[in-house]
Amino acid sequence: MNAQRRVRLSPDQRREQLLELGVELLATRTLDELSVELLAEEAGISRGLLFHYFKNKQEFHREVVRRAAEDLLRVTDPDPNLPAEQQLASSMAAYVDYVSEKYQSYVSLVRGAASGDDQLREIADATRSALTDRITSNLANLGLHHTPAALLAARGWTAYAEELVVSWAAAPPIPRDELIRMLTESLAAVIATAR
Amino acid sequence: MNAQRRVRLSPDQRREQLLELGVELLATRTLDELSVELLAEEAGISRGLLFHYFKNKQEFHREVVRRAAEDLLRVTDPDPNLPAEQQLASSMAAYVDYVSEKYQSYVSLVRGAASGDDQLREIADATRSALTDRITSNLANLGLHHTPAALLAARGWTAYAEELVVSWAAAPPIPRDELIRMLTESLAAVIATAR
């Protein structure tokens, strides 16, 4: 980032850029390791200027995690032009690739669900709910029924997928395509138990 | 608890009793709400005496969560005299009942997996691993194969069961027996996707 380019950016664009850099840095670091100093250094700006964009370290962390969540929801958004079953497989492929590339960002997001920080927990819960809603609103297209038991199974499946992808990305015991197939087939498999 | 009874207990017995009381109190409270003052009051002892048994509040919280984890593993320990499939169903029934009765204790345990406290995380991880190991060591008895994909599915299934039981206990949308059947059948269902 050179000074000339910096001048051209609006404050909003600048903040966006800092968040993108934050997600990038968080891919290989825990939240604890993602310091304000590191971001300032990597962005080539002063620590003081950084606090012009983020009130404090906590807000910076939350906004980076929120951005990671938005990225995840965007890349896994199903393509409505595909048949329902292929939509799921293609979402799962994007999910696996996102977690592989941004491993620590994703772990920070998932861990947020259980953190002491209410706002981090809210981001994590909202993301999980958005993913579950997407699945359940698509159940009919997958030939599955909308019953209380099926909705419960769909919610459980989101946790299943989360655990599978995080475990896999940490040390892949099977090929990527095999994982994507397992993720895709397991949804119908667990919902079939909710008869 | 009267003074006479207190005198008869050894320090170890006394500590055990305080932990049991802690798990009991945690059933309807978050860890944040489980104060040292409350335990002292409920146990009828002074705050000072309590710190004779637990170094500080953090140690007290950890030991209560550890005790909750031990209780969970004990009550869900399968009866080896039952056929393999009934062992799973009976473990699941004990699991559902434990979470129903000790809801907040269990949530505190599960949340520990993602908490900032390394030791709470260790307790949660060890408990989840113990539950997963129990399942995977029993795969052959359930007529299922031990492959890397099956082990991954079993790990994911532990997260599935966790989410299902916690969601269910918060607001049961289906009868208990239906939940137990879903839990039991879903294990074979997800492992079948790992062919």
TrEMBL record, chains A, B:
Name of one Pfam family that matches: TetR_N
Protein name, as recorded: TetR/AcrR family transcriptional regulator
InterPro entries per UniProt: DesT_TetR_C (IPR054129), Homeodomain-like_sf (IPR009057), HTH-type_TetR-like_transc_reg (IPR050109), HTH_TetR (IPR001647)
Keywords tagged on the record: DNA-binding, Transcription, Transcription regulation
Organism: Jatrophihabitans telluris
Residues in HTH tetR-type domain copies: 12-72
Binding region for DNA: 35-54
Top-level taxonomy: Bacteria, Bacillati, Actinomycetota, Actinomycetes, Jatrophihabitantales
